[in-house]
Amino acid sequence: NEAIARNIALLRTVAADWVRAAPGSSAAHLQLARALEASGAIAARAAQDTNAIDEARHARALAERPLQRLNAMVDEARLDIEVERFGAARAVADSILGGWTQPSAEEARLVATAAALTGHVGRTVSALRMTAAYDTIWLPPPHERQVAPIVPAAEALAFLGYASCGAPVDSMRVSAERTVHALRAWVDTAHREEVRRALMDWPATIAYDEMGASFDHRPANGANSQMAREWALAHGDATVERAYLGQIKDQMRLAMPGDADPAGVFVDARLALAVRDTASAISEIDFYGLDAVPRFGLRLTEAADEGATFVRMMALRADLAHHTGDARTASHWAQAVIALWGNADPELQPVVTRARALAQP
User: Rounded to two decimals, what is the model's pTM?
Assistant: First the structure.
């Protein structure tokens, strides 16, 4: 922790020196914004206070290229979320969607994140598909040099988009089937299984509650921890999940809040609920998620699945608060969901309708 704190302070010093040396540089201001974010100086506390949000806005104003401006805007939306300015975050995300109706493959990842944060499933999926032409998907060791071809990668990214947003289920199934068909056409039999796992495991893990265990689900040998626990639950074995929950309680004593990614926290909470452990679900969401949102940093907006599941995590927390009689907490997170997903696509409006019911004082 001391080493991390030292490096954060050093990064802030270097970034501030860069801004002083090149005050007209968008990149310098954006780096300073991220350094300030890491140190917790996100919003202004007093007049003339140097803070991350203002620096991101400076970066946006000074941007000379569309991609520079887009990066600054996504950072600004994330920083607004970190200080619970959810309406402001949605306004920035809406500006992104309005200004980048035809993004390049390089810009598409950030557009997908903006769409996910505001509940636009169609835009999320279409933008994610485009990223297959820019973001290389490598297989994990020992297959580092094997690359997933663009066609099945694009279909798998569509599956990921639908799964992350939680709807529509029919589209999840269709995109999963299209991924399998594309794999048969574009990947040789010697590598097909490894490529399939690289592309399908994570979306299938997120989609478990909506689709159940898929053909890709399997026990711990070769599967991620969450997929293996889902496989066990699907086969009537709750002991694996309960053992995990016992371990995580011990780990929380040494872990830092916000150490996990939003999508992982969301999946873990739903798995805890699958074994009727509401207390553990609430603990995971609060400790690793909503009590430490500023500590997510870039992870919150680095991928569309993180943005979409973050909003769904807030909706889940509101529901859990309601069921435990905590009306204040339920209303707080329900209002956050409404602020971000209020104009979401029709497929996600049931989430918003539920939030509106919980947001009533």
Answer: 0.94
